[in-house]
Amino acid sequence: MVADLLLRNARVLDVFSGRVLETELAVANGKVLGFGADEAHVTQDLDGLYLVPGLIDAHVHLESSRLSPGEFARAILPHGTTAVIADPHEIANVLGLRGVQWMIEATKELPLRAFFMAPSCVPASPWETPGAVLGPEEIREILSWERVIGLGEVMNYPGVLAHDPVLLAKIAVAQGKPIDGHAPGLSGSDLWRYVCAGPRTDHECTSLAEAEEKLRAGMHILIREGTTARNLAALIPLLTPLSAPFVHFCTDDREPETLLSEGHMDDLIRKAMAHGVPPEVALASAT
Protein backbone atom coordinates (compact mmCIF):
# COMPACT_ATOMS: atom_id res chain seq x y z
CA MET A 1 0.00 0.00 0.00
CA VAL A 2 1.43 3.37 -1.11
CA ALA A 3 0.43 6.47 0.85
CA ASP A 4 0.73 10.15 0.03
CA LEU A 5 1.44 10.87 3.70
CA LEU A 6 2.58 8.61 6.53
CA LEU A 7 2.24 9.96 10.07
CA ARG A 8 4.66 8.14 12.38
CA ASN A 9 4.92 7.96 16.17
CA ALA A 10 1.31 9.03 16.64
CA ARG A 11 -1.07 8.23 19.44
CA VAL A 12 -4.28 7.51 17.54
CA LEU A 13 -7.64 7.48 19.30
CA ASP A 14 -9.76 4.57 18.08
CA VAL A 15 -13.26 5.89 18.82
CA PHE A 16 -14.77 2.45 18.20
CA SER A 17 -12.85 0.73 20.98
CA GLY A 18 -11.98 3.77 23.10
CA ARG A 19 -8.31 2.78 23.02
CA VAL A 20 -5.30 4.93 22.17
CA LEU A 21 -2.98 3.15 19.75
CA GLU A 22 0.68 4.02 19.31
CA THR A 23 0.96 3.48 15.60
CA GLU A 24 1.38 4.96 12.13
CA LEU A 25 -1.44 6.42 10.07
CA ALA A 26 -1.44 6.40 6.26
CA VAL A 27 -3.28 8.96 4.12
CA ALA A 28 -3.88 9.00 0.35
CA ASN A 29 -6.11 11.21 -1.79
CA GLY A 30 -7.33 12.99 1.33
CA LYS A 31 -8.57 9.80 2.99
CA VAL A 32 -7.21 7.62 5.78
CA LEU A 33 -5.98 4.31 4.34
CA GLY A 34 -5.25 2.58 7.62
CA PHE A 35 -2.49 1.91 10.08
CA GLY A 36 0.90 1.90 8.36
CA ALA A 37 1.95 1.73 4.71
CA ASP A 38 4.50 -0.09 2.58
CA GLU A 39 5.64 3.16 1.03
CA ALA A 40 4.88 6.87 1.39
CA HIS A 41 5.72 9.95 -0.64
CA VAL A 42 5.98 12.06 2.52
CA THR A 43 6.66 10.90 6.08
CA GLN A 44 6.13 13.04 9.16
CA ASP A 45 7.16 12.17 12.71
CA LEU A 46 4.51 13.37 15.21
CA ASP A 47 6.70 12.63 18.22
CA GLY A 48 3.83 11.21 20.30
CA LEU A 49 1.14 13.75 19.43
CA TYR A 50 -2.47 12.60 19.60
CA LEU A 51 -4.53 12.06 16.45
CA VAL A 52 -8.32 12.12 16.69
CA PRO A 53 -11.02 12.12 13.99
CA GLY A 54 -12.43 15.41 12.78
CA LEU A 55 -15.35 16.68 14.87
CA ILE A 56 -18.93 16.71 13.57
CA ASP A 57 -21.71 19.16 14.40
CA ALA A 58 -24.71 16.84 14.25
CA HIS A 59 -27.33 19.58 13.75
CA VAL A 60 -26.81 23.11 12.55
CA HIS A 61 -28.38 25.77 10.33
CA LEU A 62 -25.52 27.42 8.46
CA GLU A 63 -27.56 30.51 7.65
CA SER A 64 -28.34 31.03 11.35
CA SER A 65 -24.65 31.60 12.03
CA ARG A 66 -25.02 34.93 10.19
CA LEU A 67 -21.97 33.95 8.18
CA SER A 68 -21.50 32.86 4.60
CA PRO A 69 -20.64 29.15 4.31
CA GLY A 70 -17.04 30.05 3.49
CA GLU A 71 -16.63 32.30 6.52
CA PHE A 72 -18.39 29.74 8.72
CA ALA A 73 -15.89 27.10 7.61
CA ARG A 74 -13.01 29.51 8.27
CA ALA A 75 -14.33 30.07 11.80
CA ILE A 76 -14.81 26.43 12.84
CA LEU A 77 -12.07 24.47 11.06
CA PRO A 78 -9.34 25.72 13.44
CA HIS A 79 -11.44 24.29 16.29
CA GLY A 80 -11.28 20.79 14.81
CA THR A 81 -14.75 20.63 13.22
CA THR A 82 -14.41 19.04 9.79
CA ALA A 83 -18.04 18.11 9.05
CA VAL A 84 -21.54 19.43 9.71
CA ILE A 85 -25.06 18.07 9.23
CA ALA A 86 -26.99 21.14 8.10
CA ASP A 87 -30.72 21.72 7.80
CA PRO A 88 -31.21 24.69 5.44
CA HIS A 89 -34.83 25.31 6.39
CA GLU A 90 -34.25 29.01 7.11
CA ILE A 91 -33.08 29.80 3.59
CA ALA A 92 -35.69 27.39 2.19
CA ASN A 93 -38.42 29.38 3.94
CA VAL A 94 -37.34 32.38 1.87
CA LEU A 95 -36.08 30.93 -1.42
CA GLY A 96 -37.39 27.38 -1.57
CA LEU A 97 -35.54 24.89 -3.76
CA ARG A 98 -33.30 27.64 -5.13
CA GLY A 99 -32.05 28.45 -1.63
CA VAL A 100 -31.24 24.84 -0.83
CA GLN A 101 -29.44 24.46 -4.16
CA TRP A 102 -27.40 27.59 -3.45
CA MET A 103 -26.36 26.28 -0.04
CA ILE A 104 -25.21 22.98 -1.51
CA GLU A 105 -23.27 24.73 -4.27
CA ALA A 106 -21.73 27.26 -1.85
CA THR A 107 -20.25 24.44 0.26
CA LYS A 108 -19.08 22.26 -2.62
CA GLU A 109 -15.43 23.34 -2.72
CA LEU A 110 -14.93 24.08 0.97
CA PRO A 111 -12.40 22.17 3.10
CA LEU A 112 -15.37 21.59 5.43
CA ARG A 113 -17.57 18.56 4.62
CA ALA A 114 -21.17 19.80 4.63
CA PHE A 115 -24.02 17.29 4.47
CA PHE A 116 -27.65 18.36 4.29
CA MET A 117 -31.09 17.31 5.43
CA ALA A 118 -34.09 18.11 3.25
CA PRO A 119 -36.20 20.74 5.11
CA SER A 120 -39.39 18.97 6.21
CA CYS A 121 -41.43 21.92 7.46
CA VAL A 122 -41.44 24.76 4.97
CA PRO A 123 -43.39 26.67 6.10
CA ALA A 124 -42.96 25.80 9.76
CA SER A 125 -46.62 26.55 10.46
CA PRO A 126 -49.76 27.44 8.47
CA TRP A 127 -49.74 30.92 10.05
CA GLU A 128 -46.45 31.90 8.40
CA THR A 129 -46.14 33.82 5.14
CA PRO A 130 -43.10 32.08 3.62
CA GLY A 131 -41.45 32.65 0.29
CA ALA A 132 -41.89 29.00 -0.64
CA VAL A 133 -43.72 25.79 0.15
CA LEU A 134 -41.94 22.43 0.01
CA GLY A 135 -44.29 19.50 -0.47
CA PRO A 136 -43.59 15.77 -0.85
CA GLU A 137 -42.44 16.07 -4.47
CA GLU A 138 -40.01 18.87 -3.62
CA ILE A 139 -38.67 16.74 -0.76
CA ARG A 140 -38.23 13.82 -3.14
CA GLU A 141 -36.23 16.05 -5.49
CA ILE A 142 -34.00 17.44 -2.74
CA LEU A 143 -33.28 13.93 -1.46
CA SER A 144 -31.85 13.06 -4.89
CA TRP A 145 -29.23 15.83 -4.72
CA GLU A 146 -25.61 15.32 -3.76
CA ARG A 147 -24.74 15.35 -0.05
CA VAL A 148 -28.39 15.32 1.01
CA ILE A 149 -28.60 12.40 3.42
CA GLY A 150 -32.06 12.53 4.99
CA LEU A 151 -35.11 14.49 6.12
CA GLY A 152 -34.65 17.56 8.30
CA GLU A 153 -36.17 18.13 11.72
CA VAL A 154 -39.87 17.28 11.78
CA MET A 155 -40.79 20.19 14.01
CA ASN A 156 -44.51 19.95 13.29
CA TYR A 157 -44.95 17.14 15.80
CA PRO A 158 -48.62 18.10 16.37
CA GLY A 159 -49.12 17.41 12.66
CA VAL A 160 -47.55 13.98 13.04
CA LEU A 161 -49.86 13.15 15.95
CA ALA A 162 -52.88 14.48 14.02
CA HIS A 163 -51.96 12.37 10.96
CA ASP A 164 -51.52 15.37 8.68
CA PRO A 165 -51.52 13.71 5.23
CA VAL A 166 -49.04 16.08 3.58
CA LEU A 167 -46.55 15.84 6.44
CA LEU A 168 -46.83 12.06 6.59
CA ALA A 169 -46.28 11.94 2.82
CA LYS A 170 -43.01 13.86 3.26
CA ILE A 171 -41.90 11.39 5.93
CA ALA A 172 -42.87 8.47 3.68
CA VAL A 173 -40.72 9.85 0.86
CA ALA A 174 -37.71 9.76 3.20
CA GLN A 175 -38.24 6.24 4.57
CA GLY A 176 -34.96 4.33 4.61
CA LYS A 177 -32.98 7.54 5.23
CA PRO A 178 -32.21 9.36 8.50
CA ILE A 179 -35.14 11.47 9.73
CA ASP A 180 -34.42 14.16 12.29
CA GLY A 181 -36.93 14.92 15.02
CA HIS A 182 -37.86 18.06 16.92
CA ALA A 183 -40.29 17.34 19.72
CA PRO A 184 -39.76 19.47 22.84
CA GLY A 185 -41.49 18.04 25.90
CA LEU A 186 -43.14 15.16 24.05
CA SER A 187 -43.70 12.23 26.39
CA GLY A 188 -45.68 9.06 27.01
CA SER A 189 -47.82 7.56 24.25
CA ASP A 190 -47.49 10.69 22.10
CA LEU A 191 -43.71 10.24 22.06
CA TRP A 192 -44.06 6.63 20.93
CA ARG A 193 -46.50 7.62 18.20
CA TYR A 194 -44.06 10.26 16.99
CA VAL A 195 -41.12 7.84 16.96
CA CYS A 196 -43.14 5.17 15.18
CA ALA A 197 -43.91 7.70 12.44
CA GLY A 198 -40.22 7.93 11.56
CA PRO A 199 -38.17 10.61 13.40
CA ARG A 200 -35.17 9.10 15.16
CA THR A 201 -33.27 12.04 16.67
CA ASP A 202 -34.09 14.87 19.03
CA HIS A 203 -32.07 17.98 19.88
CA GLU A 204 -34.76 19.74 21.93
CA CYS A 205 -34.35 17.99 25.29
CA THR A 206 -33.92 20.40 28.19
CA SER A 207 -34.04 17.99 31.14
CA LEU A 208 -32.29 14.73 31.88
CA ALA A 209 -35.61 12.94 32.44
CA GLU A 210 -36.86 13.99 29.00
CA ALA A 211 -33.63 12.84 27.35
CA GLU A 212 -33.68 9.50 29.18
CA GLU A 213 -37.27 8.82 28.11
CA LYS A 214 -36.50 9.61 24.48
CA LEU A 215 -33.36 7.48 24.57
CA ARG A 216 -35.44 4.58 25.91
CA ALA A 217 -37.84 5.13 23.01
CA GLY A 218 -34.99 4.46 20.59
CA MET A 219 -34.11 8.03 19.68
CA HIS A 220 -30.60 9.38 19.24
CA ILE A 221 -30.15 12.36 21.56
CA LEU A 222 -28.27 15.40 20.28
CA ILE A 223 -26.95 17.40 23.23
CA ARG A 224 -27.21 21.04 22.20
CA GLU A 225 -24.90 23.84 23.29
CA GLY A 226 -25.38 26.88 21.10
CA THR A 227 -25.45 30.62 21.58
CA THR A 228 -28.95 30.76 23.06
CA ALA A 229 -29.99 27.19 23.89
CA ARG A 230 -27.49 25.60 26.28
CA ASN A 231 -28.50 22.15 27.49
CA LEU A 232 -25.17 20.39 27.99
CA ALA A 233 -24.91 20.81 31.76
CA ALA A 234 -28.40 19.35 32.29
CA LEU A 235 -28.03 16.47 29.84
CA ILE A 236 -24.40 15.38 30.17
CA PRO A 237 -25.14 12.61 32.74
CA LEU A 238 -26.88 10.83 29.85
CA LEU A 239 -23.53 10.31 28.13
CA THR A 240 -21.78 7.13 29.26
CA PRO A 241 -19.59 4.57 27.47
CA LEU A 242 -22.72 2.46 26.86
CA SER A 243 -24.90 5.31 25.56
CA ALA A 244 -22.18 7.04 23.50
CA PRO A 245 -23.24 5.48 20.15
CA PHE A 246 -26.69 7.07 20.64
CA VAL A 247 -25.73 10.43 22.16
CA HIS A 248 -24.19 13.14 20.02
CA PHE A 249 -23.26 16.82 20.17
CA CYS A 250 -24.67 19.74 18.18
CA THR A 251 -24.73 23.54 18.35
CA ASP A 252 -28.05 24.54 16.71
CA ASP A 253 -26.63 27.31 16.43
CA ARG A 254 -23.63 29.49 17.34
CA GLU A 255 -23.35 33.10 16.27
CA PRO A 256 -19.98 34.70 15.41
CA GLU A 257 -19.32 36.16 18.86
CA THR A 258 -19.79 32.73 20.46
CA LEU A 259 -17.55 31.05 17.89
CA LEU A 260 -14.85 33.63 18.57
CA SER A 261 -15.07 33.59 22.37
CA GLU A 262 -15.91 29.94 23.11
CA GLY A 263 -15.10 27.90 20.01
CA HIS A 264 -17.20 25.24 18.35
CA MET A 265 -17.41 21.48 18.96
CA ASP A 266 -14.13 21.62 20.88
CA ASP A 267 -15.95 23.73 23.47
CA LEU A 268 -18.58 21.01 23.95
CA ILE A 269 -15.87 18.38 24.41
CA ARG A 270 -14.06 20.50 27.02
CA LYS A 271 -17.31 21.07 28.91
CA ALA A 272 -18.20 17.37 28.79
CA MET A 273 -14.79 16.47 30.19
CA ALA A 274 -15.15 19.09 32.90
CA HIS A 275 -18.33 17.26 33.93
CA GLY A 276 -16.37 14.01 34.26
CA VAL A 277 -16.93 12.40 30.85
CA PRO A 278 -13.79 10.47 29.80
CA PRO A 279 -12.05 12.11 26.80
CA GLU A 280 -12.45 9.04 24.61
CA VAL A 281 -16.22 8.97 25.26
CA ALA A 282 -16.66 12.69 24.62
CA LEU A 283 -14.69 12.46 21.39
CA ALA A 284 -16.66 9.43 20.24
CA SER A 285 -19.89 11.39 20.64
CA ALA A 286 -18.46 14.31 18.70
CA THR A 287 -17.23 12.15 15.81
| C-alpha Rg (nearest Å) | 20 Å
Major sheet: 5 strands, mixed
Give the rounded overall mean pLDDT. 96
* Number of self-contained structural domains: 2
Shape: globular
Second-tier CATH architecture of the largest domain:
Alpha-Beta Barrel
CATH topology type of the largest domain: TIM Barrel
Supply the CATH superfamily name of the largest domain. Metal-dependent hydrolases
Order of helices and strands: EEEEEEHEHHEHEHHEHEHEHEHHH
Q: State the end-to-end CA separation.
A: 26 Å
Determine and state the CATH class of the largest domain.
Alpha Beta
> What's the total count of β strands?
13
What share of the residues lie within helices?
25-40%
Tags for this model:
2 domains; 12 helices; 13 strands; TIM Barrel; five-stranded parallel beta sheet; single chain; Urease, subunit C, domain 1; 287 residues
What does this structure look like?
The model has no long low-confidence stretch (mean pLDDT about 95). The protein has 2 domains: about 1-50, Urease, subunit C, domain 1 (Roll); about 55-285, TIM Barrel. The strands form 3 sheets. Strands 1, 2, 3, 4 and 5 form a 5-stranded mixed beta sheet that branches. Helix 1 (about 70-75) links the parallel strand 6 and strand 7. The chain is built from 12 helices and 13 strands. Helix 2 crosses helix 3 (about 95-105) and helix 4 packs parallel to helix 6 (about 165-175). Helix content is about 35%, strand content about 25%.
